[in-house]
Amino acid sequence: MNDPWVRFDTYVNxxxxxxxxxxxxxxxxxxxxxxxxxxxxxxEPDKDYILQDYETVPFQVARAGP
Length: 66
Description:
By secondary structure, the protein is mainly alpha-helical. 56% of the residues lie in helices and 0% in strands.
């Protein structure tokens, strides 16, 4: 699989999953991998949007209701 979109999108999702499991170190490793995969691609300028603030704030699922 050579499509960079698939690779970095997979690592973003994996990092979010690790964050939800409380495994922050593994999540950060995934987010760092995303940063490396973006270098030299057309998505590199969108890195801040793709990673949002996941490297500083753990991903959490928004809860609905009161």
